[in-house]
Amino acid sequence: MLVERSQIPPEGLDLEVCEEPRWEGVEGLWLSLAPVQAALHLEREVNGILASGTFSTTAVVLCSRCSEQVSIPLSDSFTIVYTEAGEAFRDEEAELSTAEMDIDTMQDDRLDVTKLLRENVLLNLPLQPLCRSDCRGLCPHCGANLNEGPCRCRVQESDPRLLPLQQLL
Ligand SMILES: [Zn+2]
Ligand SMILES: [Zn+2]
User: Fold this and answer.
1) Higher pLDDT, residue 87 or 59
2) What pTM was computed for the model?
3) Are 39 and 54 in contact (CB under 8 A)?
4) How far, in Å, is the centroid of ligand 1 from the Cα of 131?
5) pLDDT digits (tens, 9 = 90+) for 107-116
6) HSE (side-chain half, CA atoms, 13 Å) at 117
7) Ligand 2 mean position to 152 CA, how many Å?
8) Cα-to-centroid distance, 128 and ligand 2 (Å)
9) Which helix (DSSP H) or strand (DSSP E) does residue 70 occupy?
């Protein structure tokens, strides 16, 4: 979805977006991703577009420890200044006032909302997703899911001298 800068009225433009994530280059990052719901406010700037808003979606990924499927809600807010390529840091004053914001470039005076949402979803995707914070993962020897209980090799490897200690824990 593209928004022309000239389409943005002086008072700004509010958009409700529901994006089907049929994005290239992200295959394999998740098993599935729900449609991305977003509320955007766009303002026309002298040299670009100021985009702020929020998004939310749910990614189904594999737990990085036990490989079970886990649904991870993703949501965040963003404020991004889009400028024409090459305009970004020309104005020192603008650079200072936008120090708190992200800066990106647009092409032909158009904002690519699809790209904006894709980048924000990717930024919020956990690098090592967990099904739960104390996931025990898989046994490195037999591959059993240790969330479902201890496996046999663990019992065998126990040092009998440590047994009294383990009973205390
Ligand atoms: Zn897990
Ligand atoms: Zn095992």
Assistant:
1) 59
2) 0.78
3) yes
4) 4
5) 888 999 999 9
6) 26
7) 6
8) 22
9) strand 69-84
